[in-house]
């Protein structure tokens, strides 16, 4: 597969996998776990795995227990913009829909980036677009994409999340994903979630690449364009390969590659040769007419009228 026709480029993967981090100066002190959610989070944070994506090319040779994050205002603005774009599925967010209170808490250190992402996923803006107005399966696959940066791996994983959502509510599902050891291992407290299904991550089947490409659709469209129905329901249930539908640019490249030895197809060659002949005859007639006018020969003036039958 060539670079030009790669689904990673066609689906905007090269601009959605950049790591964006932010850390406020104020850090929260550890406290006793009063709820199951706090206990699960503290357990996941105590796991000594590197923060960041685990790729087969680097794991387990590179181990970094914490990733340094910038703390300036420029990094804050970039992190907030990236979080809105990824968590809200590339939807346009107007000023009145922004989570101003969460942004202020992130800036002064009362929230880390992980809790800021949690708050965005629990806002009414997110609920109205990706929970209340879509099918349950579609909501689950979008939650995995927006919070874990990947597609669901199996129907069993989707079924478990559906059961949790039905029993404890939508907020419990968000807490389950954000407080999971996987989120802690990959993104930590300071990194904005990003699409990570375009790389060969450890522990994930290659089918996850195709499913992630199907969820991405395109770089400029939002997740609302696909509709309310699940994209991966039939594939997860049957476990069969998926077909990636290439955009128009890839189809154009496929047609252009059919030119053999730098020559166009026979029909295209006949067409441009005919157009060139007609143009040459028309230009020659104009030159003859202009030359006759300069020499004072007016015998050719009646030719156009005779040709038109006047």
Characteristic terms for this protein:
single chain; 310 residues; mainly alpha; serine acetyltransferase, domain 1; 2 domains
Task: Characterise the protein shown here.
- With 310 residues, the chain is mostly helical.
- Helix content is 50%, strand content 0%.
- The chain has 15 helices and no strands.
- α3 (73-87) packs parallel to α5, α4 runs antiparallel to α5 (113-121) and α8 crosses α9 (170-178).
- The relative contact order is 0.13.
Global morphology: elongated
- Tell me how many strands there are: 0
- The CATH topology of the largest domain corresponds to serine acetyltransferase, domain 1
Question: Which regions contain 5 or more consecutive residues with pLDDT less than 50?
Answer: 1-15, 56-65
Mean pLDDT reading = 76
Specify the CATH homologous superfamily of the largest domain: Phycobilisome linker domain
Structural class: mainly alpha
Strand share of the residues?
under 5%
Intertermini distance: 63 Å
How many helices? The count is 15
How many structural domains?
2
Order of helices and strands: HHHHHHHHHHHHHHH
* Helix amount: 40-55%
Layout of SSEs?
Blueprint: H1 7-10, H2 36-45, H3 73-87, H4 100-107, H5 113-121, H6 124-130, H7 136-148, H8 155-168, H9 170-178, H10 181-186, H11 207-216, H12 233-238, H13 248-256, H14 266-294, H15 303-308
Concise synopsis of the structure shown:
With 310 residues, the protein is mainly alpha-helical. The chain has helices at residues 7-10, 36-45, 73-87, 100-107, 113-121, 124-130, 136-148, 155-168, 170-178, 181-186, 207-216, 233-238, 248-256, 266-294, 303-308. Mean pLDDT is 76; it is low at 1-15 and 56-65.
């Amino acid at each position: 597969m060539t670079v030009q026709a790669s689904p990673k480029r066609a689906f905007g993967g090269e601009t959605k996998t950049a790591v964006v981090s932010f850390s406020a100066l104020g850090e929260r002190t550890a406290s006793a776990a009063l709820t199951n959610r706090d206990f699960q989070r503290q357990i996941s944070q105590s796991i000594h795995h590197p923060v960041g994506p685990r790729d087969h090319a680097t794991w387990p040779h590179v181990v970094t227990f914490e990733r340094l994050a910038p703390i300036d205002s420029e990094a804050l603005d970039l992190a907030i913009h990236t979080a809105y774009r990824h968590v809200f599925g590339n939807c346009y967010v107007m000023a009145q829909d922004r989570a101003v209170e969460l942004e202020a808490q992130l800036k002064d250190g009362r929230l880390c980036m992980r809790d800021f992402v949690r708050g965005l996923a629990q806002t009414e803006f997110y609920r109205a677009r990706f929970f209340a107005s879509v099918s349950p399966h579609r909501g689950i696959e979008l939650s995995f994409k927006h919070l874990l940066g990947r597609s669901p791996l199996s129907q069993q994983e989707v079924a478990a999340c559906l059961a949790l959502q039905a029993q404890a509510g939508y907020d419990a599902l968000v807490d389950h994903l954000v407080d999971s050891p996987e989120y802690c291992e990959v993104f930590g407290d300071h990194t904005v979630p990003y699409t990570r299904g375009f790389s060969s991550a450890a522990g994930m089947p290659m089918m996850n690449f195709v499913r992630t490409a199907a969820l991405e659709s395109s770089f400029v469209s939002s997740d609302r364009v696909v509709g309310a129905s699940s994209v991966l329901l039939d594939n997860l249930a049957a476990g069969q390969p998926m077909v990636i539908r290439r955009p128009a640019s890839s189809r154009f490249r496929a047609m252009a590659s059919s030119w053999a030895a730098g020559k166009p197809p026979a029909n295209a060659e006949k067409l441009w040769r005919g157009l060139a002949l007609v143009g040459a005859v028309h230009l020659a007639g104009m030159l003859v007419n202009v030359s006759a006018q300069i020499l004072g020969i007016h015998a050719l003036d009646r030719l156009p009228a005779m040709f038109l039958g006047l």
